[in-house]
C-alpha cells in the first residue's frame, strides 16, 4: 500500500505568511495576539485575537475572484499556491485526474454571509449576490482550489470543529492509497466578523482577558479560555513512490491516524482522546517511545486541558515526551489550527527543533507533561504526534514520521 | 431620457464581478464576447441584477442568453430605458 | 469481492410528503409530489416561492422540549431519522461496541435556519453590523460550527468512533455514505450511522438560489414545478429532509441475522475543476466517477439495472448527467430505467443524496423503480428511459446513483441486491 508523504507546505497564520516567515516567527516565539482590528470589538467582553495583518487579496488573486470569495477562501487560495510552489511540482507531472482536494471547513465564509444577510434583510431579496450560492458554505475552499489548480480527482470537505483538519489530511491519505497521486489538503478559517465573534463567545470559553500575555494559557494554572485566530495551512500530500520518482524532498510521512468522539459526555465513560492517540500509534506501527514530540490541541479551558494532559501522560508516561502548543502565538484557528500544527510538526521534523509554547509559566497541579516553554528545543527527529480536539467531543490524532 | 454609457456599464460590471487588470477594458473591446473578456454567466447575472436595481429595467434569462458582447448588453438596456421613457 | 464489505441494515427517512420510510416510499412509488407554496416564511419579493417542505411536528415525533429548543431544524430531522434507522435495523443498543461505531452525516448549508433567525435578533433586523452579544442564544456556537450535527447523532446512539460532517454541497449525502463505507472497509469501525440532513428553506438560501436563477419560478403550478428531463424544465425546487442509514460490516450483520437491504459495492468522487456552479455539457468527470465506482464494484457497465439520477431539472444538469451516463454505460444506458425522485421530494441539497440511496435500497428490496414525476413533454435532446410518471416493477441486482454539486463535485455510488455482488 502506498505511503503518503507531505512534499509542500503553504501556511498562512497571524505571525507568519508563507513557510519561511511562519517558521522564523515560531522559533522567535513571536506573538500575534492583540486587539481585534477587523471590526469594532469595544462592546464585547472578549477583545483579543490572532489576526493576519497586511493580506491584500489583489496581491495574490485575480480581481475577478474578489467579489466571489470570503477572506478565508482568499487566504486558502494563496496558501494553495504556496504549497504547490514549495512542493516544486512541475506542470504536467500528473494528469489532472490524478490530483484531488480535501479540505476541512468549520464556520464557512461567515463574513461574506453576514454581509449578504445584511443585504437581504436591509435591502431585499434581489440585493443578494449571485456568489452567495457558494461563497458562504463549507464546501467552497475545496471547490475553488480544485478549479484554480485544475484538479479533477476526488474532492471532499470534512467538518469536525477544530479537529477536522486532521480528518481532511487523513482523507487525502486514504485516497492516495486508492490511487490518486497528489492531494491539496488542510484548512483555512477566519469568520472574523461580528457574527463569527458573537458565535465564538457564546460557547463561553473565549478569554475575556485584555492582556495578550495572559489571555491564552493552555495547561497553565491560570488558564481561562482561549484566544481565537484566523488562518491555517494547505499541504501537498503525494504518493511516496511517485514523489520520489519526480525528485521531491518530502518533509515527512503521514504514518498514522486515529479519531474518536466523546459520546461519553452524555453517556458517561472515559473521554476518547486517549483512544484516538492509541489508534494513531497502532496505525503507524509506532510505540509511545518512538514519538519525540506532541503538538497538543491546547484548549486553554481547564476541563479540556486536564483531559488532554491526562491522556498524554497516560499514553507516554508522566513528563516522558516534549509537548508544545505553538498556537499560543496565533490563537485557535478553527479548521485551520490542526493543519497549521501539521506544518509546525513537519518543520520540526526537517529542522530538528521544537517551537515553543509562549506565555505559559506554571502548569496546573497534576499535569504531568513536559511542556516546551519559552525557548525552542532541539530534538532528534523521529516521529511527531499532532492532536486536535473539537467542541462536542471530536478527537483526532496524527503521527508524522521523518523520512529515512 | 436616461441612457447609459459603455464606461458606466464597465464600472457596474467591475463592481459586480471584479476587475482583471490584464484583461481588455469593456470600452476598448465592446464587441468582444463576454467570455473572452473573462466574464462568465454569473458575472452577467449579477450585473443584470445591479442594472435592474440601479436603472429600473428588467429582462429575462432568455434575453440575457442572447446577449454576447458589452455592446449588445448596452444596446439592450438603452432600448429598454428608451421604451420606458 | 474480497475484504470487508458494507451493507445497509436500517433506514430512517424524513422527507417532504411524509415523515418515516413507509410514508416516503408510498409517496414516491405513487408518483405524488410534495412541492407546494412555501409556508415557512413570507415569500413576498422572492422569485421562486415554492419548495418541498416537511410537515414536521417535532413534539409529536418524540423530540423533547430541550431538543426542540437546542437543535436547528436540520438536527431535528437527523435525530428523528436516526431513531427510525436504529429501530429499523433491530440493533440492540446495549450490544454495540461504541468504540467501533462512528457517524458520517452530510449537510450542505449547516444550521442556516437558526443562523438566520438568530441574526435577525442579534442585528435587530440588520440595523446593526456590530451585533449585540447580549441577545446570543446559548447554543449559537453549535449553529456556527455545524459539526455539531455529527455530535448530536453520536450522542443519540452512543457512537464513540470517528465522527464527522461531510459538506460537499449537493453531493454531501452520497459522499457521506461513501466515507462511511470507506471507514468500515478499512477496519476503523464495524458500524456507522451515516446519511445526510439539510433544512435550507430559509430566506437567505431561497434568495441565493433566486439570484442565480437555479430554482424554478413556476409559482402558479407548484405541484409540477420540478420537471426533470422535460422540455419545459426550468430549475429545481428547494427541498428539506434527512435520511440516516445503518451501515454495517457484512459479517457482523450476518452474525446477528440482520435484514440486509443492499450492499454498497462502489463509490467514487471526482471534481470538474471547471466552475463553481456551471457544468459542461459533456459530463466527462461525472462519467469518470461512474466508471471508477463500477471498477470498485468489479462490475461492467451492463450490470447496472437502474440509475437513480441527480435530475435537478436545470437545463444544464439534465443534459450534463445524461451525457455522463451515456459516456460511462455506453449503449446500455438506453436499455435501463433512469429516474429522478427530486421530481417528487424536491432538492434537499446535502440530504438528498442519502434520501436517494434510501430509495435505491428500497427499490432493490421491493423490486420497484420509482418514477420521474411531471415528465410529460420529453426533451428531444434527452432520449433515455426516464420512467415518466409511473413506477415500474423490476428486479434490480445493481443500482447506480449519481450526483453533482456546486463547487464541481461529481459523485457516484453502486448498490447491489444481497447475494448479487460480484
Notes on the structure:
The complex is a heterotrimer of chains A (404), B (85) and C (422). Chain A has 404 residues and is an alpha/beta fold. In chain A, the strands form three sheets. In chain A, strands 1, 2, 5, 6, 7, 8, 9, 10, 11, 13, 15 and 16 form a twelve-stranded mixed beta sheet that branches. A two-stranded antiparallel sheet of chain A has the order 3-4. Chain A is built from 13 helices and 16 strands. Chain A has two domains: 4-245, Thiolase/Chalcone synthase (Peroxisomal Thiolase, Chain A, domain 1, 3-Layer(aba) Sandwich), CATH 3.40.47; 257-401, 3-Layer(aba) Sandwich (Peroxisomal Thiolase, Chain A, domain 1), CATH 3.40.47.10. The longest helix of chain A is centred in the N-terminal third of the chain and has 17 residues, at 71-87. Chain B has a single domain (6-84), classed as Orthogonal Bundle (Non-ribosomal Peptide Synthetase Peptidyl Carrier Protein, Chain A), CATH 1.10.1200.10. Chain B has helices at 6-17, 41-55, 61-66, 70-84. In chain B, helix 1 packs across helix 2 (41-55). The model of chain B has no long low-confidence stretch (mean pLDDT 90). Chain C folds into two domains: 6-255, Thiolase/Chalcone synthase (Peroxisomal Thiolase, Chain A, domain 1, 3-Layer(aba) Sandwich); 265-416, Peroxisomal Thiolase, Chain A, domain 1, CATH 3.40.47. In chain C, 32% of the residues lie in helices and 19% in strands. In chain C, strands 1, 2, 5, 6, 7, 9, 10, 11, 12, 15 and 16 form an eleven-stranded mixed beta sheet that branches. The relative contact order of chain C is 0.19. The model of chain C has no long low-confidence stretch (mean pLDDT 97). Classes of the chains: A alpha/beta (404), B mainly alpha (85), C alpha/beta (422). Strand 6 of chain A pairs antiparallel with strand 6 (163-166) of chain C.
